[in-house]
Amino acid sequence: MKKSWLAVALFALVSVSAGAQEAVSSAAAVSVTAVKGKMLYATNGGRLGSVYRVAGDGSVQLILDGNMKTVPASTLAMVDGKLTTSLSKAEVISLR
Description:
Elements: H1 2-28, E1 39-41, E2 47-50, E3 53-54, E4 60-64, E5 67-71, E6 76-79, E7 82-85, H2 89-94
Parallel strand pairs: 1-7
Antiparallel strand pairs: 1-2, 3-4, 4-5, 6-7
């Protein structure tokens, strides 16, 4: 009898832990809403340029070194109130 209660308690603990992890994952997966004209910063804090256009999928376009670059939405985050990409300037330059 004691073993079955222990198993139930262990299962409940694992279920609660999994639910908490899902909640944290959901909070981390909150998408960033970029706005045209907002400055985009690189991962090191350097300014890349102003957002020229926001695509339907949330990716942003900017003109960098005379070329249009599309930065994927999956790399965007708000850091200290600034729109930031996890990419470096060199990585953004290498994007198509």
